[in-house]
Amino acid sequence: MANPRRASGLHLQNFSDEETPLPQQPTPPSRLLSIVVFLKRPHAFLFLLSLFVLLTWVSLRFHNPQPRYSINGSSFPPAASSLSQRESADRDANLVRFSSVKFPSQFLKDKRGWLLNPVTAARDAGISGGAISCASVHVGEIRPGGVRGNHRHRGCNETFILWGAATKFRLENPSLEGGYAEATIGGDEVAVAASPSGRAHAIINIDPQRTTFLLGCQDSLIFYNDSSIDFNIWKGL
Ligand SMILES: *[C@@H]1O[C@H](CO)[C@@H](O)[C@H](O)[C@H]1NC(C)=O
Ligand SMILES: *[C@@H]1O[C@H](CO)[C@@H](O)[C@H](O)[C@H]1NC(C)=O
Ligand SMILES: *[C@@H]1O[C@H](CO)[C@@H](O)[C@H](O)[C@H]1NC(C)=O
User: Fold this and answer.
1) From ligand 2's centre to the CA of 196, what distance in Å?
2) Does 219 sit in the ligand 2 pocket, CB within 6 Å?
3) How far from the centroid of its chain's Cα atoms is residue 226's Cα?
4) How many CA atoms lie within 13 A of 229 on its CB side?
5) 3-state secondary structure 49-101
6) First to last CA, the chain
7) Which of 88, 115, 178, 202 is the Cys-Cys partner for 150 at CB 3.0 to 4.6 Å?
8) 89-140: per-residue pLDDT in tens?
9) Which atom of ligand 3 sits closest to the CA of residue 225?
10) Cβ atoms of 164 and 206 closer than 8 Å
11) pLDDT tens profile 128-162
12) Which phi and psi angles does 229 have, rounded to 5°?
C-alpha cells in the first residue's frame, strides 16, 4: 500500500528536479547564464553545427572569390606592354574582341548586355573574309578542354562569335612562322572572328571551369561528309 504512494512521490520529485533550471531564467543579469543553459541543451548542438557551417561557408566565400581570368599566370586585362602584342595576334587571327562587361564597347550599348548581328558583325568589327550571309548557322558549346573545328572549309567563308570562357582561336596563316595565328580571349570577352574559305581554324576551350559558346555563320550550305572539308589539320589539339 505504501509503495505506490512512494513511487508517485518519487515521480513527482523527479519531475520537479527536471524543471528546476527553468524558473531561474528571468533575473536581469542572467542573460549570459541563460545562454549557457541554452548551450547545455541537446538541440544546441544542432544550432552550433549550423553556425559553424555558416561561418565556414562565409570564410570560404571571401577567401576564395571567383577566380579572375588567369591564363598562364597572367590575369586579364593584360598589362599595357603586352597589349600591342595581343593586338597584332588578334589581327593575324582575323579576330576582334570586345568586353562583355565594360562600357562603352562595340556591341555592348547598355546594361542589358551585348547583342550583335552575325551577318554584319565581322564587317562592323573591321575584319574581312567572313560570311556576308548565313546560308548555314551552327550554335553550340565547347566544354573545358574541348576543341571544335580543326578543319578547313574550301567551300565557304565563316564568321564566328565566341564567348563565355577563356578560349583560343587558331587560324591558318601561311605567312606566319608555324603556319597559324592564335588569339586568346578571356571569359568576359566576346570575339568576332572570320575564317575565309581555304583557311583552317580551331576553337579551343582553355578554361578550367567555364563553357565556351559559339555561333558559326557560313555563306554556303556545307555537309560534313563533303569532300571540300579537310579534317584534323593540327595534330595534338
Ligand atoms: C606559359 O608561358 C611560358 C613562358 O611564357 C611558356 O613557356 C609556356 O608554354 C606557357 N604555358 C602555357 C600552358 O601556355
Ligand atoms: C567567300 O568570300 C569571297 C570574298 O568575299 C567570295 O569571293 C567567295 O565567293 C565567298 N564564298 C566562297 C565559298 O568562297
Ligand atoms: C552528305 O550528307 C547529305 C545529308 O546528310 C546527303 O544528302 C548527301 O548525299 C551526302 N553527300 C555525300 C557526298 O555523301
Assistant:
1) 8
2) yes
3) 35
4) 16
5) HHHHHHHHHHHHHHHCCCCCCEECCEECCCCHHHHHHHHHHHHHCCEEEEECC
6) 94
7) 202
8) 999 999 999 999 888 888 888 889 999 998 899 998 899 999 999 999 999 9
9) 1
10) no
11) 999 999 999 999 999 999 999 999 999 999 999 99
12) -115, 130
Which ligand is the nearest neighbour of the Cα of 226? 3
User: Looking at this protein, which amino acid is placed at residue 9?
Assistant: G
The pTM is what? 0.64
Which domains does the chain carry?
2-63 (no CATH), 82-231 (2.60.120.10)
Residue 178 Cα to ligand 2 middle (Å): 25
Residue 68 vs residues 76, 165, 187, 221: alpha-carbon distances, Å: 8, 11, 9, 40
